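Pilot study result, target chain (525 residues):
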Amino acid sequence: MWFSKAAWVTFPVICLLAAGLRGEDLAALSRQGKELMAAGRFEEAIPVYEELVKALPGNPGPVLNLGLALHMSGRQREAISHFQNVLKLDPRHQTARLFLGMAYLELKMPAEALAPLEAAVRGEPNYKEARLALGQTYLLLERYQSASEQFEKLTTLDPENPKTWNGLGLSYEGLAARNFVELEKRALGSAYWLLLVADARATGGAFTRAFLLYREAQARIQGVRGVHTAIAGIYRGIGKPEWATIEEEKERKLPPLDCGSLEQTRPASGVRLRKGSGRPSSPPAALARKLECEFRAGRYKQVAELSRGDTTAESYYWRIRAYNELARSAFLRLARLPPSADAHELLATINFNRRQYAESAAEWEAALKFAPGNPNYRLRLAITLTFSQQYERARGILEDLLKESPRSKELNFWLGFTLLGMVEAEKAIPFLEKAVAADPSAPRTHKELGRGYMQAGRAEKAIPHLKIALAADDDGSVHYQLSEAYRSTGRVELARRMLQKFQEMQDPRRAAGGLPGQKPEITPP
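Predicted structure:
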């Protein structure tokens, strides 16, 4: 659900059916339906509203409430037809538009949700529930610019809602990622591309790889501000403060950035390429300097606006950094909101995606204080604990949850995954087998079951599952496991092919993890 069930029962629409009712029986049904909805007993409300719809044909109120009851009961396809019927009776019905869009979102059909939600926002621009759902829809459709516009408006309409700031941060992250993909298409391996990859590696703690990339970028373009400071941070991270001091001194000796003489500069439209090279040319020096000046001054939106449409590596570099800073600012604003279950849930998710598992677990625990026993929060906490290798604690939570939902595909998978982390393959396999049986098309489940069979020394049984998992192998690990399985069963040629593919996927140039010919170590200044 996009909003909590508690929020729905106070939503004003469930009172709309009162107009036009006649007779004590209809009034009693109306009261009964309203009481059931307010108590969260949505399934029981459905037959009540079905009777009212029959008794009051052509009245949109009962139809709407029947749709709401079905929606809250998880019966989205049935709910959609009723919301559509309301709109046939009243094409401008704002609540029906909103809930029609919401039902499509529950079915993971954002393209179908778009039109009713856009209409709801056009009809009432300050309709914050509709605007939030529209922003979420744009995110799912990867229309990040449109999403950012919706969430920017919500920072005024609904600034205390954690979803506002989370959505804004995700929008800017999406814009940064999209621009990085475009930079790779146009200038893969350029100095500015190297700097961005180095920043990402340093943030993730891969200091050696980041160091090599920074040094290579420095060799290609002289006097880039901030690189000495970044390298100093790496030196401090590995316990070499004396080396860091040298780099910081080099940063201080760089010529100051001259921003005083700049006029308002906008990029020329279109793509500028070096003649005959197919590579982007350098932008005018004034624009490049303007972008850096705006960035250093913290005016990140201006950087994005000034560089929009410019396809040079320098413009992509500053635009991507600006979007990353805007995302960071939004997430910081989220972190400063008053504590709530929603806020802690979103912060936990952000930290998990950044692989900051200890911080993520702390946020899930804080969320559980607001919603004790919430099964989704308990599951996410267990997953986070597993990734931080706190297997025993994760195992206890998952076993308790499985007692409540023994047929859950997700719970069986994660308990099996956790047991594999504890190197208890024979115990893990039955749970992973249940997960595979529940969804035979999921490559990751087959991957973990194959890993379990390999861990248990049952290579022949692992092979068919690892073969299914190959389609989703993004790091080469499945190819390696399958190579080992083939080798164990005497299929030497197949083992060789899988190992060769694994080695190709580990090519450091593909992973931007280092540079050919360089020894992977951090050297002194």
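One observation from the pilot: The chain has three domains: 5-120, 142-255+286-337, 419-511. A full batch analysis is planned for the follow-on phase.
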